[in-house]
């Protein structure tokens, strides 16, 4: 009896899986189509220097302009891209697109604004990442220091020896590396000092409660001071209020990113904003 109940359950589960399997295949086909038909776009969110209010960088964030569903958030399709390895060509497109935009800025005379792009684990471990970065830099004549790759700490912890090699070769190109979502993974600052890194982005989960939670405030303060001792620049993510902004500024955090400074916006709007800020 138990056995037959078990097999019923299995059948139910299996047919459930079939439906979901179909949907996944359809989504994958749609994503492939999206890449070929230029349905992906990048929005850009400013990173502001807390000491003088200047925009020193922007982070490129992907969206899918779906013909029916409208603007789809990366949380809904990045995992699918990663599972299907489509993240490799899409990630290459992101890199190229960001470098292309940077070229238009340089041609308009905006210098010194950095561009950050997110790199997923699959991309980081793809043996061709370095070649792709090198090619994008060359073809868009991008100043190396203006490009920053954002990776999460878990990517480094999977295989620290290999990760160190990859980071060293990225550094040899002159490209910056930032640790994204710091505090949410399985590492510590003490461990991170082994890796050649330039910046650390404190996850928005900590920034969100710095005003109301004494323990989050302490974590953020300690992260900033340790990061500085290790020579890393610190970015506070998810800054939504002036109080959070002021807290980070007083703690000598270097940069802030979040809705309080600006939401992610399309290329044209950002370029207009940069042009206005310059006057
Ligand atoms: P992330 O790299 O941690 O990016 C920050 C996310 O927080 C973005 O969500 C951004 O819109 C959002 N955000 C910024 N400021 C605030 C704020 O003040 N409050 C709140 N609540 N949220 C804020 P988004 O654009 O939906 O991206 C989600 C994630 O998708 C990213 O998290 C990143 O992990 C991934 N992603 C985005 N673009 C790419 C890409 O081109 N390649 C890869 N591999 N992953 C990407
Ligand atoms: Ca990021
Ligand atoms: Ca982040
Ligand atoms: Ca995140």
From TrEMBL:
Domain EAL: 24-278
Protein name, entry field: PAS domain S-box-containing protein/diguanylate cyclase (GGDEF) domain-containing protein
Native species: Nitrosomonas cryotolerans ATCC 49181
Phylogenetic lineage: Bacteria, Pseudomonadati, Pseudomonadota, Betaproteobacteria, Nitrosomonadales
Portion of the full sequence shown: 421 to 699 of 705
